[in-house]
Amino acid sequence: MKYILLTILFCYSINSVAQDPNPELFQTWYLYYIQSDDLNTEYEISEIEPPIAPTLTISENFDFNGEGACNLFYGTFETITSTNLETFEFLSETNDCGITVHNFFETSYFDFIRFNGGGWYVITSETNGMVLTIANPLGGIAIFKNYALTVMDFGWNDIQVYPNPSNSEIFISSNYNQVLKIELNNLLGEPVRIPKSSTNSIDISNLAEGIYLLRIFTEKGIAIKKIIKQ
């Protein structure tokens, strides 16, 4: 089984059938990171130039709407469990954004929402607000927060994580940011125990294969990177 953590998340959602959806889901979310599946390009929104501000607003009846780079979209989710989101309907504008990276990003973002069959979500808290993480069975992940990127966010995140995927050690480097500490979470937002690590490397050799989220704390903010343990 390629992604054990995605399977764990699926089992978690099955066990939540009798529960109501998290009421915090129903608000406007600002996209920070997207990879539509594990073979496609990763997009850190703060690194896209010229800057964009993609959103996703979810209503209590599970209708949704949002904005990509230059086009609007809307549709309807349906739920099977309290932690499950599947796209029932999706419609979008099809204007040319006029900038190649914007067009490519928007295709990836819209495809993630449009073809979200069997997707799962979890909402976690951090200092400035809440984080919505949506994952799909293809290794795709979207990370939203309920507060917008600021001007200071754009361009500051030069943090590199490599090699990725890896089966042993992963290194963290940055030319412009001092890394203060690092944390590792699974896709449920739960902390993962790791051997003693420094601020520039992490040993993942003892972890199960799958997808994890590496939270990197700096003086300028928190960067979230998806890492894959082979």
From TrEMBL:
Keywords: Signal. The keyword Signal applies. Coiled coil: none annotated. Residues 161-228 form the Secretion system C-terminal sorting domain. Residues 1-18 form the signal peptide. Pfam families: Por_Secre_tail. This is T9SS type A sorting domain-containing protein. It comes from Aequorivita xiaoshiensis.
